[in-house]
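**User:** Hello, beginner here. Are you able to go through the protein record under this note? It all follows right here:
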Amino acid sequence: MQNNIFISTLLLLAFSAFASILVFNYSIKFSRRLGLVDKPNYRKVHRKPIPVVGGFAIGFSLLLVYAVSHHLQQFVAQHWAIAASLLVLLVMGIFDDKYSLSVKLRLGIELLCAFAVAYSGIRLTSFHGLFGIQQLPVVMQYVVTIFLIVSITNAFNLMDGIDGLVGAVSLVNTVLLSFAFLVLGEYQWLYLMLPLLVSLLVFLSYNWNPAKIFMGDAGSLLLGFLFTASGIFLIEKSFTVSAVNVRPEAIIILVSACLMIPVMDTIRVFVQRAKQGKSPFAADKTHLHHLFLSLNISHANAAKKILLLHCAIIFSSILLIQWMSVSSVIMIQALMAMIYTVLLKFVNSFFHWFRFIRKYELE
């Protein structure tokens, strides 16, 4: 039995690799015909048109795997809301990459998808003692779940600003969530994560600086939505599984660690814009990755440094949960992200004045 599972998993990975390589190559080749090319402007950090087909290729690769994988077909049948929402977001993201849809339309579609997931049963029924909050009324279960899915999905989308960053963070998240699903015995979810893992590896081979392709909204929205929804599922599932030795607290901090950087960076940027009298949704260059670029740090090094912070938050959380409460660990996660950003802004200010003084002296 175990040999059959092992062989079927290897075949799934092999076909996923074949499908991903094929789809990525053809997506790049026909990107102009598809109208999926990102042209540079004053907000962009690239200087020549780049195919924005990463999300399209990842989504289409998963569809090919679905066509041949009985396990993935079972997942779709059982978790129809997740599958349908991912497909809707993929299509919406493709149209957004091509035509730049309105914020209201995007938000409306995201809210409907989040509601569908909550209605299907994947929602937070309790805070499980987090910050002293236990069971939630049904209405609050929907409100909290929809809010978390939509806000974190968009936070993940906003993080997609430099080569390799979202792909690398997504790769780490996919590995960790796959392990969690394996431990909890959720093999159908695992058979969704494994092809995604392969597609992300192929994507990174094209997206690492200097990037040949971009992920686009189609990819970042799909990934952000999937990680948030699957994280909620894992948290709820961990409190109902008694056959394995799993601490639900560890699952909670693992999920929060996977999502902490985009969430804290988005909150910081929104608060900063509000203080300046700007709309929180106004476009600028104040995100974490922009702070690195302003120091003349390359895309690759900036992505590596943010990825290192991401891994540090995850690793420290796994250690700290042995001695501290979930609430305390999550607060430390947020503090790590905040302190890192404050120090980076301080370095930015220092070098800004240093360059100004040097320029003045030379004159």
Notes: Residues 296 and 302 are 10 Å apart (CA to CA). Residues 2-362 form one domain. The chain has 14 helices and two strands. Strands lie at 37-38, 50-51.
